[in-house]
Amino acid sequence: MLNPLYIIPARGGSKGIPGKNIKNLCGRPLIAYAIDVARECASDERNIILSTDSVKIADTGRSLGLEVGYMRPAELATDTAGSREVILDAMDWADRQGIVYDCVVLLQPTSPMRNADDVRGALALYSDDIDMVVSVTEAASNPYYNCFEIDPESGFLHVSKGDGRLTRRQDAPKAWEYNGAVYVINPQSVRRSGLGGFAARVPFVMPRERSIDLDSPLDWTVAELLMKQTNR
Asked: What angle do CA 169, 175, 181 make, to 5 degrees?
């Protein structure tokens, strides 16, 4: 049975939605939803790391009953800091604390519709001979059908992939996009390269209604409406 290290990345700075990680969504701070899911899945709460540089976010985590012993270094909380460096620093801290884990589960707070079954489903697809299981949803735009590029010579639009003769979206090969909800990562793989360099990535498919990634005030409004409709 897998024993994951759950990392919830929640830095203090946010431009699209200021203060979003502790902003109340349907009466609860946003990070509460990621913490809930991690608690449902983790066998030991020591394996849950709230990765933040913000004292306010750390205190909010503590107010939710989570032990917050790790603080992210300021240099890993900038707009240019990469996910790999954030993950590695949290892993190194866990190693120093003697926390045992065999994979890393990254749970971004910006996916409040994700549930514990989504995490368990992704974990069921993981094995130590792959780099990552990543949650996806069917892409809103399909490169074979309604995703276009501009030809640099003519300035005209052309379909991104294929010959452009498809008249029905149903006839196009399915395309998938990351939804940001669940990443199950091989620790050895992330020590070798960044997530974008992984060759062995397995998709875990999630429905669009649980794939909202909060990046703008409009996303927030949609999430609130959906959560109220589903009594979440």
From this structure: 130
Alpha-carbon dihedral sign for residues 222, 223, 224, 229: positive
Domains and CATH numbers, the chain: 4-137+177-191+207-229 (3.90.550.10)
Mean pLDDT, residues 61-80: 92
Residue 201 forms beta bridges with which residues?
132
- Can you point out the beta strands (E) in 160-231? 176-185, 201-205
pLDDT grade for 1, boundaries at 50, 70 and 90: confident
Three-state secondary structure call for residue 27: coil
pLDDT of residue 232: 66
The span from the CA of 220 to the CA of 179, in Å, is: 15
Looking at the chain, list the stretches that DSSP marks H as alpha helix, in order from N- to C-terminal side.
Answer: 31-41, 55-63, 83-96, 116-124, 187-192, 217-229
The pLDDT assigned to 122 comes to 98
